[in-house]
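Need a sequence for this fold. Nothing fancy.
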């Protein structure tokens, strides 16, 4: 039996989810800022609200909806990134406004174009309430989008956010034609760097090696369908951040996340060398080639030491 779902944010991913769940027989309505209507109007009589807005829009949307949120209505967050002002994940922003709402996270290797085409994919629904995650796992899975569950929403979000930064770095590597060895090394060290943030925010190490961590990293860092990867390629070709953004013509979360991660690192004493070099490139303080050189010339250390 279908459930009633409201999808907030109709970019590539939000529109894809709206169409897919509609095809499954659910009653799905959507809202975007371009519609000119109020998202408050969609809240009544829903079984689930899905937030697929860009990270920059989460805080204001949460503040707008909080006074009208129906008691017990679950929210499934699909936003991947860190808020640059509050240095928080999407569900941390939502929970500040919706203290009693059940919160879930959807993440994983889910390139919207492939999912929209019906190609096989898997993702994870994360929630502190395992029964809640399992309930929506059963209701939202289908034969081409297989959903798993975990009980680590913060780790799931951290992994999904930081992999965008590593995808920018991977695009730079490919744009410079550095080869397979360099890219494999970069992604491996990038995974370790994601782990620093994930564990520092209280996430579970196992999440790093699951769909939201390694799975999403492999997809995003190796596909021209990824905006963050394309951003990195354009940076390597000599574009500025603004020029790359204009060429892509869609939200690229990696740059904002890299800056937010560095601010968190400064507060918490984390060492995030790849994030640091990505930000230096984005801000024009170094070149892509010089950033690679700086990473290669770092002090030698054991492999399993903080990034």
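Here you go.
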């Amino acid at each position: 039996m279908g459930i009633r779902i409201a999808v907030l944010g109709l970019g590539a991913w939000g529109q894809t989810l709206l169409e897919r769940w509609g095809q499954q027989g659910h009653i799905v309505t959507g809202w975007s800022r371009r519609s000119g209507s109020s998202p408050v109007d969609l809240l009544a009589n829903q079984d689930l609200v899905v937030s697929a807005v860009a990270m920059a829009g989460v805080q204001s949307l949460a503040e707008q909806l909080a006074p009208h949120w129906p008691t017990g209505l679950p929210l499934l967050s699909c936003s991947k990134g860190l808020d640059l002002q509050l240095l928080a994940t999407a569900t941390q922003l939502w929970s500040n406004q919706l203290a009693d709402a059940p919160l879930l996270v959807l993440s994983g290797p889910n390139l919207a174009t492939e999912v929209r085409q019906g190609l096989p994919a898997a993702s994870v629904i994360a929630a502190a309430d395992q029964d809640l995650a399992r309930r929506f796992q059963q209701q939202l899975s289908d034969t081409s989008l297989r959903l798993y569950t975990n009980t680590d929403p913060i780790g799931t979000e951290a992994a999904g956010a930081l992999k965008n930064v590593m995808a920018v770095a991977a695009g730079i590597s490919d744009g410079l034609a550095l080869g397979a060895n360099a890219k494999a090394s970069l992604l491996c060290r990038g995974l370790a760097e994601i782990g620093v943030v994930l564990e520092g925010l209280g996430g579970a190490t196992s999440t790093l090696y699951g769909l939201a961590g390694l799975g999403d990293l492999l997809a995003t860092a190796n596909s021209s369908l990824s905006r963050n990867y394309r951003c990195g390629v354009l940076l390597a070709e000599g574009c500025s951040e603004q020029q790359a953004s204009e060429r892509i013509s869609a939200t690229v979360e990696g740059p904002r996340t890299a800056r937010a991660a560095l601010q968190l690192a400064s507060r918490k004493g984390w060492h995030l060398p790849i994030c640091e070099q990505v930000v230096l490139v984005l801000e024009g303080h170094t070149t892509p080639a010089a950033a690679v050189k700086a990473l290669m010339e770092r002090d030698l250390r054991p492999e399993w030491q903080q990034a």
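For context: The two ends are 47 Å apart (CA to CA).
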